[in-house]
Amino acid sequence: MTTQTAERTTSLDRSLDPYVLDPANVQAPPTTLRGRLKFLGPGMITSAAVVGSGELLTATALGARVGFMLFWLILVSTFVKVWVQVELARWSISTGKPAITGYADVPPKFLGRGWMAWLVLLMFLQFLIGQAGVISGAALAFSMLLPIGGDPFAIVSIGSWVAILVVVAIGIHLANRYEIVENISTWMVMLVTLFAVAVVFLVQYTEFAWSGADLADGLRFQVAAGAMGVALSMFGMTGVGAGEITAYTYWVVEKGYAAWTGPNDGSESWVGRARGWIKVMKLDAWVSWGVYTLSTAAFYMLGAAVLHPQGLQPEGTQVMEVISGIFSSTVGRWGGTLFLVGAGVALFKTILANVPSLGRQVANTLSVFGAFDWRDMVVRDRWMRVIMIVLPITWGTLGVLANSPLALVIIAGILNALFLMGVAVATLHLSRTQTDPRVKDGPGFMVLLVISAVAIFGVGSISLFDLLG
Q1: Model-level pTM greater than 0.85?
Q2: Which whole number is the average pLDDT over 275-294?
């Protein structure tokens, strides 16, 4: 496939290794907005991972605690992280490498590997906690709809639904194909976003209707006393977190952006291709941002409008019960059922996106520490498949034993803010030392990137202080 190929493909041929840059696979980037839109996809996988746990549980809980006062944090939390996401993906397109391979190059090094590679090992603990909360929350929603064994809150019913969801997640991803992940993610993101918006407007037909004045009050950059812990968790869990920023590099490579750019031979033609595919990536990232920001804002408004006026702050298994009960009593049984269906799908969608995302990150980390050669496509695929079986089983087991989805997600959110610090530092280092200067944007972008990195690092520092305190 060359730049002169008449027939353009919108996804890389699955027989090719996306992590190997071969001049034979280069493809000219689209030059129009309409053309670029045809090549979007990685951002939908990111949105699928984002819209779920942080939005449905953490954002709703924050709205319940402080009302509309911190509505502005939704916009800041999601917007400020995109610049780091874009810059790390730019590095991946220009080098053909995924994030964790780059993290191992970030000094100082210990035992031959950068400190970020060691930090990633701890990050998997956060992933275990967060995804266990997500899968148990999804199982609870479906258990309330169709209880197994009579009592929807009994471990028999919740555990059975967890087992069902684990089997489904494993079955979908056994093929380990990028196209499957992208297609499922796109459709589920569309459904969940429509659900979130529908729920917010459904509130208008109840006694808890919100107004424009409520939104205006929430955009005044106020900070509520006593809400710092949940606010920090929300910053860590809403929008792209450390895991999503890291995972995005695997998806932009497997989509084909790096392979179509080709190896950096120093030529101006390479620069032109690289800048063209980076433009596609940036559009992809910002479309994704719009989707998950809309969903996050909707779920926050749900908590602020419905739960806060009643002084309700649901925790653990009460999250689904309280919100669905309110809709059942105000708009009818169908309202509660609609919420449970949408909530279950939203949470399970996060699992479906994170199984392949974390499968790649765990496999890449193991390769960095010498378990196998990442460049061997056959061996790499085998490791990914095994990991994608182990992960959902582990999450499901922990989720059933813990049985407190909100608590798990809040803990994971605070930890995630810590790992964001490392991602911000690593991105700046890789951008400065390994990204070809000719494919970078101007000083305006760099200013925003530094502001983004400093903000992320600052919140991570506050989180660490809060934990130690």
Answers
A1: yes
A2: 95
